[in-house]
Design brief:
By secondary structure, the protein is mainly β. The chain contains two helices and eight strands, in the order E-H-E-E-H-E-E-E-E-E.
Length: about 140
């Protein structure tokens, strides 16, 4: 079994097609939608984590590209500079996946779980000391 995080960009003529459904049906993959923004008559964006056989994931990615979907591997990650962090918790309330969370309610210590992070970058702006950084 293998897992990959990918970013899909759908052209407006593909938004109403069951392209992602085929990942399950034809390639026996499971997926978790980490983030999605799809607007009718415009482009759509999705961040997916695909799970399944590596060969099937590769075939599915080729299929998506053949369908006209732009596929990019998640090539950035969020890092917390703990030396700069003041433990204010501003990032915690904005994190949609709870990758940033309060580890200890007594001390209000902030913690980060990179496995849950989808690199949406929502946490960067509210961080007063600019302790959260994007690495490509």
């Amino acid at each position: 079994m293998s897992a990959k995080k990918i970013v899909l960009t759908f052209p407006k003529d593909k938004i109403d097609k069951p392209i992602v459904y085929k990942l399950i049906k034809e390639f026996d993959l499971s997926f978790n939608i980490l983030k999605a923004s799809i607007t009718p008559d415009q482009e759509g964006h999705m961040v997916l984590e695909l799970d399944g056989d590596k060969a099937e994931i590769d075939k599915a990615i080729k299929h998506l590209k053949d369908e006209g979907v732009n596929v990019e591997f998640l090539s950035k990650e969020i890092k917390v500079n703990w030396d700069k962090c003041t433990q204010c918790g501003a990032c915690v309330s904005i994190c949609p996946t709870e990758a940033l969370y309060i580890k200890d309610r007594q001390t209000m210590e902030v913690a980060f779980d990179p496995e849950k992070c989808i690199a949406c970058e929502l946490c960067i702006r509210p961080c007063p000391p600019r302790a959260i950084e994007v690495h490509f």
